[in-house]
């Protein structure tokens, strides 16, 4: 009987011989991975209370028995877990060397119930379908039985996020801001037009600038879903997530479905921060509070930017691309 690895080798051979286009190759590959590595029915709630919160270290191997990863270097750490550079040990047999990947490892508390785990896996599966040059690739997801942690296997990037860039450089010119955020607008436009997906957690820490100068959008919906999953009820609408300061007012309203206006608001806040060095609003937005115009913006540019973080979603530009074009 063919194993998943055998099927992947055959699939790759068909693609390399020109008998299978990239879209069909990705579709079939994902189906094989889902069938091989998805937890069995009824297993969603089983592992939640086993293992430590994370307690990981370099050199440790994680993952299911048939798909192991060796942790090499901790890249980032926060409330949403850890990101590690790792070696995909299964590719040793397929390629003759171990491919380098990034693992986003979520702490067990974020998948404490069967509902939370299922929602996160659904979100990861959606993110994996996104194939755009300005969105970091999510290859698959897996569960580490030893730590009870779900993790995402992603494209490994070298560079820095915009949060680090701004801390190092300070405010930027409007031309540079638009240069950095235009790819973000393209990525968000693709996700909405092709997949009806909204990011819901746009912020400088989720926009990455590679050493080659490429802009990549990170955490497409995953962090938002995980943060919502930490709520006690676990049944909040997807829109009730995001990061304070970048979160549009309507995101807090229960039952509202996420629309592009959420991301337009967050990008408008980012433009202000990148131009002024300060956030336009401290924490959740107070009614009637009007920030000062950044010195880097002309009066017409400031008027256009204010539309981006209008309290009413309908008053905002239709897309991030439209917002940036208005500046």
UniProtKB/TrEMBL annotation:
InterPro entries: Kinase-like_dom_sf, Prot_kinase_dom, Ser/Thr_kinase_AS. PROSITE patterns: PROTEIN_KINASE_DOM, PROTEIN_KINASE_ST. The lineage of its organism: Bacteria, Pseudomonadati, Pseudomonadota, Betaproteobacteria, Burkholderiales. Keywords: ATP-binding, Kinase, Nucleotide-binding, Serine/threonine-protein kinase, Transferase. It comes from the Bacteria. Residues 69-327 form the Protein kinase domain. It comes from Massilia glaciei. This is Serine/threonine protein kinase. SMART domains: S_TKc. Gene3D superfamilies: Phosphorylase Kinase, domain 1 (3.30.200.20), Transferase(Phosphotransferase) domain 1 (1.10.510.10). GO terms for molecular function: ATP binding; protein serine/threonine kinase activity.
């Amino acid at each position: 009987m063919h194993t998943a690895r055998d099927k992947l080798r055959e699939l790759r051979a068909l693609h390399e011989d020109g008998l299978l286009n990239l879209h069909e190759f990705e579709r079939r590959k994902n189906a094989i991975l889902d069938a091989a590595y998805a937890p069995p029915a009824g297993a969603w709630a089983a592992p939640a209370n086993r293992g430590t919160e994370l307690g990981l270290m370099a050199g440790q191997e994680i993952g299911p028995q048939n798909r192991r990863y060796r942790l090499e270097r901790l890249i980032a750490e926060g409330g949403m877990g850890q990101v590690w550079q790792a070696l995909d040990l299964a590719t040793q047999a397929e390629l003759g060397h171990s491919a380098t990947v990034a693992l986003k490892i979520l702490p067990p508390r974020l998948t404490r119930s069967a509902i939370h785990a299922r929602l996160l896996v659904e979100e990861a599966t959606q993110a994996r379908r996104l194939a755009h040059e300005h969105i970091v690739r999510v290859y698959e997801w897996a569960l580490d039985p030893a730590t009870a942690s779900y993790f995402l296997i992603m494209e490994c990037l070298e560079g820095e996020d915009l949060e680090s860039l701004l801390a190092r450089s300070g405010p930027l010119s409007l031309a540079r801001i638009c240069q950095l955020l235009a790819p973000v607008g393209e990525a968000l436009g693709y996700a909405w037009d092709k997949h009806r997906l909204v990011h819901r957690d746009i912020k400088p820490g989720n926009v990455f600038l590679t050493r080659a100068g490429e802009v990549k959008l990170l955490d497409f919906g995953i962090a938002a879903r995980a943060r919502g999953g930490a709520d006690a009820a676990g049944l909040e609408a997807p829109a009730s997530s995001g990061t304070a300061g970048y979160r549009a007012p309507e995101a807090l309203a229960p039952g509202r479905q996420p629309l592009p206006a959420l991301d337009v608001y967050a990008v408008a806040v980012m433009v202000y921060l990148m131009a002024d060095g300060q956030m336009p609003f401290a924490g959740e937005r107070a009614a009637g509070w009007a920030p000062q115009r950044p010195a880097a913006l002309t009066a017409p540019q400031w008027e256009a930017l204010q539309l981006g973080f209008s309290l009413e979603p309908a008053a905002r530009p239709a897309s991030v691309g439209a917002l940036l074009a208005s500046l």
